[in-house]
Design goal:
The complex is a heterodimer of chains A (about 280) and B (about 180). By secondary structure, chain A is an alpha/beta fold. Chain A is built from ten helices and eight strands. The chains are: A alpha/beta (about 280), B mainly alpha (about 180).
Chain lengths: ~280, ~180
Amino acid sequence: MTAEVRPLCKPAEYKSDIKPVWCPGCGDYHVLMSFTRAFAELGLPPEQIAVISGIGCSSRIPAYTSCYGFHGVHGRSLALAAGLKVARSDLTVVVASGDGDGYSIGGNHFIHACRRNIDMTYVVMDNHIYGMTKGQPSPTTEPEFDTALSPGGTGLRPFHPLVIALASGANFVARAFSGNPNETASIIVEAIRHPGFSFIEILSPCVTFRPDEKAWKDLVHPAPVEATNDPGKASRRIMTDDGFNIGILYRGDRRPYQLHMGQASAELAELEREFET
Amino acid sequence: MTVADGPKIASLADLFAIAYQIEADAVERYTLLAEQMQTHNNPDLVKVFRDLARAEGIHAEEIRRQAGDIDVVVHARKMAKWKKGESPEEADLGAAHYLMTPWHALRLALTSEEQALAFFAHVVETTKDVKVKDMAKEFVEEEAEHVNLVHRLLKKYPRPPESWSQDSDLAIPQE
């Protein structure tokens, strides 16, 4: 008997029949395209991938893929994903979030997901604004950005997600730009292949509440140096770059989190007896 | 995308596969734009993008026929990949707007056709393979005709006033 060889999927086969409702011009369309191209490049069947998200424009993405998906609670995508990956280590787990969902509501989960270093890939579509709820400043909004909710700007120092990821123990750190979907797909491929917790910040313009971000396509440029495995060096580079360096910036070699199968789970009958007494 | 970012063309099969993939990518992109416009209730643009997708689909089928025994679909999957940027006829998604007009759609199409023309012209200039050069010249002529066609269509749709993107039903920032 010969084993059935399943043909590799085309990128379009990773898309569901649900049509995105993002604004035309939104960078998230490109990110979806990068996801499907990356999955096709990896040759993963859709049922071996789980796309997990929280709340926000970017978090709609699981519904637009044909993979398993979970559109979860605001800021809790990483908690969901960690549970899933620990229970089903055979699945490729990709987590999607935005700068509000991921860095504000889910900020604490972000830090601890980096620290735990569970083997999954975290993609944050950063547009420096809360788009779905109509334009409030997010943790990455520039301090002087003037909105009706924050006249004259918030005056607050923006969150620096890549450096926080490095300081917290993420094993792979990269920055991408949505408008370059092929390069972004390549970075996603590398992130999924890299063991441990991989974090990609994708600059993804919000054309409705941040039309100024259309200029990003002229500002982004490839990172001038190769990725390092020294988190200190990577942090210094990221702290002093212009915020538009694109590419893989850090590849660590920390051992990913391993589930320790202890006696308790092996002796289920004993556990049941404890409950009965 | 620059022409140099394209895949390497070492044979006639490569050229046909890439030419086919360029048109197939265009079909996919215009279809996506039509779906966006459908979602955002811009029926004029739905029609324009669907028409563009249909036209590109016809071009793709023509290339498939011209290729004869070469399975362009299978061959393209192996090698027609752009490492940087997108393929020449993938219209810029970032330029889309829910209030865009047929003029804007045709300007996007014009840029795409011009990029395809530049790509095949680059092949003509750089290949040493006579068969590839001759076929690439044919593709240059076809793309030049597409460019002219879009120019003719643009004459039917005047440039909209500067206020085209003003929405009387604006999304209101929360106050």
